[in-house]
């Protein structure tokens, strides 16, 4: 139901673009989000986007990350610029609402070296 990709190893200051294709039953009409789980920490919301395109960001992501969605392709993106070592973690996409979320899947690993 979820397929995230685009992670990798990048130096501090670099950029990555993540993408995630989601089944239409979850994607349609629902706000979608990217989440991050850093080593030893709980999963946290990084950015979200409504079906209409309104966005919201964690304080740590504001000004550096951009979330977007392509409703025709059931895909959500996360453009990450100015990456920092503290951005390291596994990134997951999923619905914002717990009532429509899919199983989390494997996510995509982002590692930022200093």
Concise structural overview:
By secondary structure, the chain is mainly beta.
Number of helices: 1
Q: What's the β-strand tally? A: 10
Q: Please provide the ordered H/E string of secondary-structure elements.
A: EEEHEEEEEEE
Biggest sheet record: 6 strands, mixed
Give the amount of beta strand, in percent. Answer: over 45%
Strand arrangement within the widest β-sheet reads 2-10-9-4-5-6
Shape summary: globular
Overall mean pLDDT stands at 95
- Given helix and strand content, the structural type is mainly beta
Would you mind describing this structure in some detail?
This protein is mainly beta and 114 residues long. Helix content is 4%, strand content 48%. It has one helix at residues 24-27, and strands spanning 2-5, 8-11, 16-22, 32-37, 44-49, 55-57, 65-70, 75-80, 89-95, 108-113. It has a six-stranded mixed sheet, with no helix packed on it. A four-stranded antiparallel sheet has the order 1-3-8-7. The protein starts with a strand and ends with a strand.
Q: Which descriptors apply to this entry?
A:
single chain; 114 residues; mainly beta; 6-stranded mixed beta sheet; 4-stranded antiparallel beta sheet; 10 strands; 4% helix
Which helices and strands appear, and what pairs or packs with what?
Elements: E1 2-5, E2 8-11, E3 16-22, H1 24-27, E4 32-37, E5 44-49, E6 55-57, E7 65-70, E8 75-80, E9 89-95, E10 108-113
Parallel strand pairs: 2-10
Antiparallel strand pairs: 1-3, 3-8, 4-5, 4-9, 5-6, 7-8, 9-10
């Amino acid at each position: 139901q979820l397929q995230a990709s685009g992670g990798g190893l990048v130096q501090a200051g670099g950029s990555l673009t993540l993408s995630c294709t989601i089944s239409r039953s979850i994607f349609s009409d629902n706000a979608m989000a990217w989440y991050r789980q850093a080593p030893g920490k709980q999963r946290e919301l990084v950015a979200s986007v409504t079906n209409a395109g309104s966005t919201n960001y964690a304080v740590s992501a504001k000004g550096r990350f951009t979330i977007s969605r392509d409703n025709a392709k059931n895909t959500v993106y996360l453009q990450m610029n100015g990456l920092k070592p503290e951005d390291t973690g596994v990134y997951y996409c999923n619905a914002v609402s717990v009532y429509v979320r899919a199983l989390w899947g494997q996510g995509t690993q982002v590692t930022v070296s200093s």
